[in-house]
Amino acid sequence: MLQFQYIEFLFGLAILLPLVGLFLFVIHWKKKKQQQLGDNRLVTQLTSNYSHQKYQIKIVAVIVCIGLLILSAANLRMPLLPKGSATKGVDVMILLDVSKSMLSEDEKPTRLDKAKELIYQLLDKLQGNRVGLILFAGQAYLQMPLTADVTAAKMFVSNANTDVVNLQGTVISEALTLCNNSLDVREKKYKAAILITDGEDHEEKAVETAKTLTETGVVLHTIGVGTVGGATIKEAGTNDAKRDVNGETIITKLNPDLLEELSKTTGGTYQTLNKTDEVSARLINTLKEMETKPINNSGFVDYQSYYTIFLAIGVALLLVEIFISEKKTI
């Protein structure tokens, strides 16, 4: 069923009524002024090169263009899968590190931005599965419970930043525990977790916690973001390198050894996030090999948008209006 995503923009169509009224007023005003100028035949001769019809076409084109642009902004769309439809898939929990070290720029533009780019690609390819999102630094929070609504998932990912978790650090074990509790512990399969971090853990419980994931049937895949050589962390607002209490510049480094050990513990895979396309493709292929279960879609999996149609026609009309002359064609 077709629907508009941003219904509030449709109220903008109300502006067309005063525009049409203004247009009719101008036409009436022009006729009145023409009559006031004097001899009708003389006025006609003086304005013989002017096309009243072309003027009207230009104004109508502008008004229709405004209406089409408003409809484009409202984003007419159609759900690809209706509510309540059933697909086969798995439950995937994404664990994203949002600690300050993820602002390092050894991956461009930052580690966090590159991680989010990977998640966007994964979400596009995970349609039909249920996906959840956990954000963690010194603490872990369930940002989004499992859902089949890809559009909602992308919105939560876009809002992820280093300010959403007040306590800084990188406590992977707490994120893993929350992940395990957020998945169905009664099932011993159909579950995967994707941990995206630079691996700078500040406590030693991560490997032990990963073993509990194995007991409940969760396969953990780890993605390392950053470089082994490391990089500085820029202070917000000043762009100065972050320093420790002794005044020494802090260098944050990727810890691939920990991430490899975590993935091996649960029978998962480890990859360094170099080329986003290749990493997402390999990870999706791995997930596709998992045994699936029926998944009821409580929302909409994704949408086909049609805003480009209104936008293209509107821009075309605007270009036509620009090139239409108000002079008569001889």
Question: How would you sum up this structure, described in words?
Answer:
By secondary structure, the protein is of the alpha/beta class. The chain has two domains: 98 residues, no CATH class; 211 residues, von Willebrand factor, type A domain (Rossmann fold, 3-Layer(aba) Sandwich), CATH 3.40.50. The chain is elongated. The two termini are 50 Å apart.
CATH C-level name of the largest domain:
Alpha Beta
Radius of gyration, rounded?
29 Å
What general outline do the C-alpha atoms trace?
Answer: elongated
Oligomer: single chain
Spatial sequence of strands, sheet with the most strands: 6-5-4-7-8-11
Provide the structure class.
alpha/beta
Strand content: 15-25%
Largest sheet: 6 strands, mixed
Indicate how many domains the architecture comprises. Answer: 2
As a percent range, the share of helical residues equals: 40-55%
Low-confidence stretches: none
**What's the N-to-C terminus distance?**
50 Å
Count of separate DSSP helical elements: 10
CATH architecture of the largest domain: 3-Layer(aba) Sandwich
